[in-house]
Structure formats: C-alpha cells, structure tokens
Amino acid sequence: MPTDAPGPGVDDRPELAPPAVVPLLEPADGVPPVVETPAALAAVVEAFGAGTGPVAVDAERASGYRYGQRTYLVQLRREDAGTALIDPVALPDLSALSDALVGVEWVLHAASQDLPGLVEQGMRPSRVFDTELAARLLGMERVGLAAVVADTLGLGLAKEHSAVDWSTRPLPQEWLRYAALDVEVLVEVRQVLAERLAEQGKAEWARQEFEAVRTAPAPAPRAEPWRRVSGLHTIRDQRRLAVVRELYATRDRNARERDISPGRVLPDTAIVAAAQALPRTVGQLVALPQFAGKGTRRRAALWQQSIDRAVALPEQDLPSARGPAGDGPPPPRVWADRDPAAARRLAAAREVVTALSVEHHVPVENLLQPDLLRRVCWSPPRPATEEAVRAALVAGGARAWQVELLGHRVAAAFADA
Fold first, then answer.
1. pLDDT tens across 156-200, in order?
2. What is the spatial distance between Cα 89 and Cα 41, in angstroms, rounded to a whole number?
3. What's the pLDDT tens digit per position in 91-126?
4. What is the pLDDT of residues 120-129, one digit of tens each?
5. Which residues pair with 84 in a beta bridge?
6. What is the distance between the alpha carbons of residues 259 and 236, in angstroms, rounded to a whole number?
7. What residue numbers bound the domain in which 145 lies?
8. What is the pLDDT of residue 218?
9. Which residues form a coiled coil (predicted)?
10. In the predicted model, is pLDDT for residue 17 greater than 90?
11. Which of 214, 241, 275 is the last residue of a domain?
12. Measured between alpha carbons, how far is 42 from 120 in angstroms, rounded to an integer?
C-alpha cells in the first residue's frame, strides 16, 4: 500500500547476527599419542609418505617462557594418514619425514612463524599454502586461524591454549587435543580459500606470495637489538642509553644460559626505570618498584654491575642518541625538511597504493612492502621511467604480480609529484 512515510534508512535496519558456528571439540580420530621414539617416528614417516593430498602442518613454541623460538611440538594431518603429534625435543631430526613429503603441498597458517623452527628440525616443504596469507589477499577482516575456520567452514575452533608453555613435559591431554584440532580441518580451509582466490583472480598472486614465504632467507641479526626495548623513546641521554644497552646485553646472556624468555628474567620496564634513575648502589636499585620482584632482587648485584659499567664508559663509547646509521631512508616524518621532492613522491605513491588496496580488497602492506616503497621513493632510479621503477621494485624483492600492478602507476605518480 502506498505511503508517504520514508523507507527505512541504513541506520534503521536490524543488525544482522553473525552466522552461528559449530564448536569443533574433538578430533575425528581422537587425540593420538605423542610420537617420541624412533620406532614411532618411522611408522609416521611410512604412513604420511603413503597418504594422499596436501598435508596440514603446525608447530608450537614456548614464546614468553623459553629463550628463542624453538619448536616444542609438531602437528601434521594428511588424508589416509591421520594426525600425528611429534615431540621434536625427543626427536630433533625430522628430515626423514620431510623427505617422505617431497613434492607434497604443506598447508600452514602464518607459515613465516613456523617454518624457521621446522627447518631446525630438518623439515623443508617443496610447496606451501599459507591460509593466513590467503585470507589477507582475500581482504578478510580477521585472519587468525579461529576466525578463518569460522568464516570458511562455520566451525568454532577454541584457542585458549595458544599461549601456554609448550616446553612442559609431559604435555597435558587438553593441550594435545587443542594441538590436534589445529590441523584437523586445515586442508578443508585451504580448499575453500583456494576457490575464493580463483574467483577473485588472485590465485597467481597467492602462489607467488606462498613461494616467497617458503624461500625467504633467515633474517639478518639486528645491529643494535637493544633499541627495541619498549619505552626506549622516553630516554634521550646517551649515558642512560648506555645503561639500557648494558642491561639488555646482560639480560640476554642470562636468559640464554637459563633458557628463559628475556622478559621473564628482567622486564623492559625495569631496564628503562633503571636507566632513568641511574642508581649507584644495589640498595637504590631494589628501591625501584620495578625491581621489587623476588627473582629481580636476587640478581640485583648483577644488574647493578651492568649499570656501573655503563656509567663508567668514556664519552666516545656511548651509543648515539639518533640510533645506528642504517642503509635505509630516514623516518618519513623528516622527509619534508630533508628532501621535499622525496616527501612528495612518497605521498603520491602512498595514494596509489591506498587506492589499489581499496579496489582489490588487499591490505596496503600486502600490496607492497612499506619499507620497499619508502626506499624507492627516497632513492628513485634516475630517470624514473616505468622500466626503471619496475627494475627497482624487483631488486627490492617485490613479486611479479606486485610489479605488474604497481610499476607503471608508481612511475606515473613520481612524474606527477
């Protein structure tokens, strides 16, 4: 019936409830026993070598508990082979399993996090499908494993044990159930994501990204890792920066010797507090609230010795207040003063990348590495022809699909800037 009343506006429409998910509580085949003997590993190698289709792979670390990023549990699942939970502490060499899977696609979520530890166990994939990276290329709002499983399969995956101490032995049964469920439906998720990538014309983009992750070299050690201490920006004085540097180095040595996460040995907040206060005695040090903990007080003499060494350094040995001289460009905030033309190039190039991000529903950082964009804008090829800009992107590690999408547009932006 006609009416003069206006139709409902967007803000008046009822809010749609998110689709219901079915909790995924138990692995289909139950929780398998942990593989921790050579004989059990040999049986897994045979079973997975005879399996069919891709293999789902996951790894658990003890970040926040142990020093470094060592793997403490490896999970795999493959059709016709079932699920395996392997203890890499008892079985540090898993190269036989890797050899049995040559040519098989490995499905991982956030592969860049797990592959370095798996390589330490002798596991190197021939091909990779990264479900987290696929979700990013598809423009999914949430890319954590639980969110992706819910979106693709309508299943609820609990993540309450994601941050536990996986170096614990024996591992509790509930943790093992959680670990088995992490690979339970990963291959099915991969199938859905692959179909979506093909529908959006991004299958080749994904293939190149997965290969880049698989073949990525180990990151080079940072020149001055102590500069990543949280709260360092509050300290400008070189003497106090030296205290931070010395305490960081002492903490790192102690953490490595004890195989404990550095943050548990001495929090960043304590390092910064000591650098600000410059205590001259152990008594003054432990009077700081950040040094009130039992473990911190027990090693108070060790920390005070580090502070004393920094205080005694000659001026020429103090760290720079500006940070190390790197090979990259300066922070973009100073470009307008130091090189206005570079600032204009960066603004124009960022506008191009942002527009393409919206058009293709891909995060800006996945269209092109932000550091590479800054480098090309700060030191562009001369002359900045399309061919030269493409070559600069390739030299910086851009994938072919990124160069094809961005090369001519960035060159045009440089010409207009």
1. 998 888 889 999 999 999 999 999 999 999 999 999 999 999 999
2. 13
3. 999 999 999 999 999 999 999 999 999 999 999 999
4. 999 999 999 9
5. 76
6. 32
7. 22-214
8. 86
9. none
10. no
11. 214
12. 19
For residue 326, name the pLDDT band (cuts at 50, 70, 90). Answer: low
Two structure tokens written together for 327 = 């090979």
Q: Are residues 210 and 263 in the same domain?
A: no
Q: Which amino acid type is present at position 209?
A: E
Q: What is the pLDDT of residue 12?
A: 42
Q: What is the CATH number for 175? A: 3.30.420.10
